[in-house]
Amino acid sequence: QVQLQESGPGLVKPSQTLTLTCTVSGGSVTTFDYYWHWIRQPPGKGLEWIGYIDYTGSTVYGPSLRHRTSISQDTSKNHFTLQLSSVTPEDTVVYYCVRNLVDWGQGTQVTVSS
């Protein structure tokens, strides 16, 4: 079974770039037909899809954050990374990494505050 674990800073200052890493175990980021998503959930609101990177390294981003988002992968470390630039307090949410919308990490809370 594929397991995912998010890691990164819990606190980021406004205007900085947030970087989160998702470490994968029980599977490889390059396995055929695996799609590695980032999804977030603001307090009291629904899920917001940020984007994904697939097993070939190709990326697709959602419309709302694409101008600030970059997703990459490190095959040697078997992890993939989310970078979100120019963060504001509205980016204070729980971020999840997800495989094929089936296997979810536990989520990591990020707070944007000075």
In short:
The chain has 114 residues and is an all-beta fold. Helix content is 0%, strand content 51%. It contains no helices and 11 strands.
Describe the protein.
The chain is mostly beta strands and 114 residues long. 0% of the residues lie in helices and 51% in strands.
Q: What is the CA-atom radius of gyration, in angstroms?
A: 13 Å
The number of helical elements comes to 0
- Unreliable stretches: none
Give the H and E element order. Answer: EEEEEEEEEEE
Give the strand content.
over 45%
Annotation, overall tally of beta strands: 11
For the termini, the CA-CA separation is 39 Å
Shape: globular
Helix content: under 10%
The averaged pLDDT comes out at 96
**Structural class, from helix and strand content?**
mainly beta
- Major beta sheet, specifics? 7 strands, mixed
Topology, pairings included?
Blueprint: E1 3-7, E2 11-12, E3 18-25, E4 35-41, E5 48-54, E6 59-61, E7 69-74, E8 79-84, E9 93-99, E10 103-104, E11 108-112
Parallel strand pairs: 2-11
Antiparallel strand pairs: 1-3, 3-8, 4-5, 4-9, 5-6, 7-8, 9-10, 9-11
Q: How would you describe this structure in keywords?
A:
114 residues, mainly beta, 4-stranded antiparallel beta sheet, 0% helix, globular
